[in-house]
Write a structure and sequence with these properties.
elongated; about 25% strand; Thrombin, subunit H; alpha/beta; seven-stranded antiparallel β-sheet; 12 helices; about 425 residues; Rossmann fold; ten-stranded mixed β-sheet
């Protein structure tokens, strides 16, 4: 039984310090005040001085209040009863449903042993051409969506949640507005996907420390379902809010700041979460797709900059579209040859012609005279943006490939594409 401490040394912001021995990092504690009981988590150990972050804030906490260490880290229930449910950043129900207390598992465990992993080799279809054709999402991949505030990244995540060919979705929200949280709930409920989904939602009004818990809650539950044979897609929004929560706590703890005030272990903390993505050799899988907003559209900002070194590519969301240049799925080669013979040809050929279109756009903007080839490129570029890049396009991969050939045949002569003759003979529209 853990010792009860009734002398708090200091209260700074939402962090308290006590003197205690035999305490472990991330251990939970219960603080009893005159207003009730609050949960706190150990965030720093320095000899026998223990710092704890209070989930509900330090308001009403006095130095003579009782602190009882619980002897374990954060736990969350794991069972099929979680499906269709919405929880907060501490694992408690947010949907007014019953609390779940059976089969508790600890969160924030170690990453999977590499010997139990297999090479990614299965595609996750989303019915979004800019993903399925040009940057295929692969089972067990970890990919960020780089964007700026105001872009429809939450709408994109909701659509992927509805259409991705996986067994279940675990959606984690960090620092969301209430209308954003309700949007996810209503969209998945209307689309019939809520029954295969689990939500862990932290809003901007909730305690900061709960936001730090959301990725760990999502990934720990995902790992258990994956071990039972499920292919799980974890969607996180927004990892910049997660990093900002780390920064806020680090400032409170008076840690020496690193780049732009973020803690020095930012890379390690992000990597520990992204590296949970895995395809088990004898079970299911975890795939991670996470929004990372870029303040000022600055990709050198510490959060996207560090993220880029960890993940296997990125999607750039700009002007309501996934940009073909800059977006990259480093694992797409693992699956492109297993879809259809013309997949890679369409992917490479259409992007090359689109690059020529962008050059022609610059020529037109600068007032240069345009030739017949330039006019064909302009027609092609408009069609490509409307029928491929537009996120409202919702068609399977094969239909998207067929549409690619139709766009090409409507804009160019067969010999103008530069494609191999055997491919043209087989797929060029008659």
């Amino acid at each position: 039984m853990k010792k009860v401490h009734n002398k708090i040394l200091s209260v700074v912001g939402n962090v308290i310090t006590v003197k205690a021995e035999g305490i472990m990092y991330n251990e939970l504690a219960q603080i009893s005040t005159q207003y009730g009981k609050s949960l706190a988590q150990v965030i720093k150990l320095e000899g026998d001085i223990v710092s704890l972050q209070i989930f509900s804030g330090s308001r009403g906490v006095y130095t003579n209040d009782e602190v009882r260490f619980l002897g374990h880290t954060m736990k969350v229930s794991f069972s099929d009863k979680m499906l269709g449910r919405i929880f907060d950043g501490s694992g408690m129900p947010k949907d007014r449903g019953p609390a779940l207390s059976d089969n508790l598992i600890e969160i924030n465990g170690p990453s999977v042993n590499p010997a139990k992993r297999i090479i990614p080799q299965r595609m996750i279809r989303t019915n979004i051409p800019m993903i399925d054709i040009f940057n295929s999402l692969v089972v067990s991949q970890k990919l960020p969506i780089f964007s700026v505030s105001g872009e429809p990244y939450n709408e994109l995540l909701a659509r992927i949640a509805l259409q991705a060919e996986v067994d279940m979705i675990i959606l984690g929200g960090i620092g969301l507005k209430n209308d954003e949280y309700l949007y996810f709930k209503e969209r998945l409920e209307d689309g019939g996907a809520l029954s295969r989904s689990i939500f862990f939602m932290h809003t901007a009004a909730d305690p900061v420390v709960e936001g730090l818990m959301v990725p760990d809650l999502c990934l720990s539950v995902a790992e258990k379902f994956a071990l039972s044979g499920k292919d799980v897609l974890v969607l996180l929004t927004n990892m910049t809010n997660y990093a900002d929560a780390m920064k806020e706590i680090a400032i409170t703890m008076e840690q020496v700041p690193s780049n732009r005030g973020y803690p020095g272990d930012l890379y390690s903390q992000l990597a520990a979460r992204y590296e949970k993505a895995v395809d088990f050799d004898d079970a299911g899988s975890i795939t991670v797709l996470a929004v990372t907003t870029m303040p000022g559209d600055d990709v050198t900002h510490p959060v996207p900059d560090n993220t880029g070194y960890i993940t296997e590519g990125q999607f750039y969301l700009r002007n309501g579209r996934i940009e073909p240049f800059g977006s990259l799925s480093r694992l797409k080669q693992q699956v492109n040859d297993k879809t259809r013979q013309d997949h890679r040809v369409i992917m490479d050929g259409m992007l090359q012609l689109y690059a020529e279109y962008k050059e022609t756009e610059e020529k037109r903007a600068m007032g240069f005279r345009l030739g017949e080839w330039d006019k064909k490129l302009l027609k092609y570029g408009d069609r490509f943006e409307d029928e491929m890049m537009n996120l409202s396009v919702n068609i399977p991969l094969e239909a998207a490939l067929d549409n690619g050939w139709k766009i090409l045949s409507d804009c160019f002569q067969k010999h103008e594409t530069g494609f191999r003759s055997d491919i043209l003979e087989k797929f060029w529209p008659k």
